[in-house]
Amino acid sequence: MKAVRLTLMRTSVLCSLLGCTSTLAPQAQEFTHIVAFGDSFTDDGHIDGHGFNRDSNGKVWVEYLSDKLQAQDLDNRAWGGARTDDGHYLGFDWSGFNWQIDRFELQSKPEETLFTVWIGVNDYWDAKNDPADSVRNIKRGLEKLIAKGARHLVVFNNFDLTLSLGYGPKTEHHDLVPTVRVLTQKFNTGLHQMLFDGSNSFVQEHPGVKLYFVDIGAFMDAYVKKHDFATVPWQGSYAFPDPEKYLWYDEWHPMTQCHFEIAEMVHQVLQQ
Prior knowledge:
Radius of gyration: 20 Å
Largest sheet: 5 strands, parallel
Strand content: 5-15%
Shape: globular
Order of helices and strands: HEHEHEHHEHHEHH
CATH topology: Rossmann fold
Helix content: 25-40%
CATH class: Alpha Beta
Strand order of the largest sheet: 2-1-3-4-5
């Protein structure tokens, strides 16, 4: 008991010096369940009846996050190629973000369940659609998740996909680079405004919901600048993957080491 009192006294003194508003640091929310929605950056294959493939050389970020949180269950409903509406970038009318949500029913306690959303790039990667429509689709999906019981939401923006090898100088998509960069900026700006700006923003309309925003755009910009990565994908190589050499698993998707660091970053966001 004396040791506990002494610890509290030391904490109180330290907070007085630092200007803390509370004598004890707030405890991070504990999550026993994770429900993930998204596209190929989150898809871990058809493990639990959802998804196409794991487009990496190992775990994707939400699997690492589940390990980090020691969650009891990961319900990964992401499908590679998913758009923000009901459909897929190849044209069929299923697998999309809102389609994923329509087929979900909450089975765990809302206060112990973390929902993650990373979606959007398949709408405009080929410069054929307006990201403003994507933002509206995401808002519609988030509203449906709340109606189904979601109270803790992780929402990603998108990174500049033209960083990937799929838009390289010798590819058929290279000419789209300037346009796709502009569309990515428009998507990220519109998403942030929808979530946070004004009295009718998502967070203002849902004060009982905790939203954790992940700026994957800034993360990937910094990640690429920090390393001297190979300009070829690792996929197909027989050499052991060097995380300091390879960023891209294929032309579009990052290696598992990058996914690990994304999970570390998301975990830090959850502590805020």
